[in-house]
Amino acid sequence: MVKINLMRLAAFVVICLFVAGTTNAQTKVWGVGSATGVADAEFSSAFTQTGTAASYGATVWTALSVSQDDGTGTGNTITPGNAYWTRSLTGLSQGAYAGSTPASSASMSNGIAIFDSDFMDNGGVQGAFGTGTSPSDHIGELISPRIDLTGYTDSALVVQFYLFWRNFYSDLTLSVSTDDGLTWPHTVDLDVLLPCNTNDPPSEGMVRALFTNATAGVTNLTQCRIKFGFDGGYYYAMLDDITIEVAPLYDIAMGNPDNASNNLVDNGNFVKIGSNAYIPSINVDPTDLREWFWGGKVANYGAVTLYPQDSVAMYCSIDFVDAITGLTTSGVYTDTMWFDTVYAGDASGRSNIEYLRDLSFLSTYGEGRYNVKYWAAHKNSDGTASNDTVTHNFTITGSSPLTNYLSKARIASSDSKVFAATGVFPGGGPYAEYEYGSVYYFPKGASDSISIDSIDFRYRLAGSFTGAATQTLFLNVYELDPSAGVLNDGNLLTQIGVGVVSLSGLGTTVTPNSYGLTTVTSLQDASAGGPMPALNDNGFYYISVKIAPGALGGSPTFDVEDVPFHGADNQNWYMNTAMTTTDSVINPSPLQITDPAGTTTWYWTGFGSDLVPSIGIYLGKQSTITSTTVWETEGAELNVFPNPTSDLLNVSVKFDEATDVTYILTDVSGRVVMFINSNNVSQEVKTIDVSTLTSGVYMLTAKTANGTSTERFIKK
Q: How far apart are CA 122 and CA 128, in angstroms?
């Protein structure tokens, strides 16, 4: 399950950063890599449990239970409760819904700290909510032994640690005290660091929290402490391998999503070019840049502000991996975006978004995977190299096996169909119906006769599923009016298509806590019957799956155990919604919920900033950009074969009337490598020896007095 988060409280101080690697060398003050506190930083000893600051352990970690739910469902709490951080030697939650993935910190065998909220609530038994040792919600704290920071008065400090967090609706904080834990004036909200804010998969890696003024003006630093806090319910948080070090002067980074903000830009981290993971070549108009932009957030996690004279910039580079040969061509598109002042301790980062200059690289290279890299840089020495770069990829589809395939989700390796990382269901049921999907853009839907041939849908059953074995869902296609900018009610939608999603074997063939896949091959006109109407040019379409058993005479209401969950993937296309304009809606994934009283509510951002529904769409019609089949102009045809080839390339041309033709062979850089003339040609097959060419991608152009036609081919 995923609970809808509309807004979280803003963090009190400074910054956190989730990084996958290690940092450049800084002065280590305490913990891993330093001369003191290593055993404590690796949780090598048992914790103590006391009640007040006066009795915190001087040389051991102290676990406190602040409060817990009383288990009556009335919202009452028990203080101090029985919800504690504990030390684990397995790095594995015992909760019924936590999953089976253990932590992988460097020193896990020595011990790891865990707040096992899932287990404390249900005792490890699915469906047994509130029957464990400590019903959720919980508030628990973990307080370090005394830490001597003498000599670091007025120093900016970084606390780095390993975090393994599967979050449902909880908050994690880190605080610093310089008076033995009597007060905690410096707190970081760890929510701002997460690369994904959903419960599945967990977030795992090293966290760096900057405290710029925790020691400012403090002369006695012999009794400092740090404190980790958990506030909420489900699933777990694990900590290990703590280091306190002197902060670098400069530490530029690609900013992370900030879950404490309700601003669309803040909730994303960077733009994924093209707005979809898979993009059919037939749905690309090289003259329409509406979905083709890039950008992201640049943050400074160092202690000193970066100014324009520091030359702060974000860079973009795209590499192409050919779908047929697997050969990589580097730097098929590059771009630079300059930033102004980036302040030290800027948690949310500075955001910039710009359209691509053009799409000529797509016309040149065509079908295949495009690997995109963004990185931030400045002219000074940077403290942490591993947080400077983010990557993603998108695939241009056209030929088998992903024939003209459109999707925001990834492809599953098990069956090469649409992938689901989790199942999503709105919290707080029961419901009368709910609907979840994504918005897709068709620049030349009518002009190119684009059709929706079929749609795949991945779903999941809850572990507690007890619903009917056979169920019917609805796949809906709506045209969206983009003029309002956001989808806040159903009045912006005109339904044009509907398909029946028939599921069977639920609970048996598709077992609880597993995924199923179904395909819809027939879409009907939603109002008049017959085939669904054609798509329009510049059309935005919301394609969704609706669960509404009452519409078929079934139960008028349902909850998590009654119906399938929607499958979803955590691809984080979210920042793209920041590009919404009066004539363009950049592909969000909205959700609508209807309660038993019939009140419908729309959520523009769906289930959260990083989730997209597991919907895969197969389109029909020939490509409007470079392909490996026939490319036609009025009165002329050009075809090249075999493709790919190792020695001989056949070029077939046909014209309505005889004409002189020049065949021009160029490499991907535009360099002419061969030039052949033919006179008075109405139809011919020209054989060209390409055996001496190096392996790669080439373009064959047939040029006449009336124009040119171009085909791409691969030299093996």
A: 5
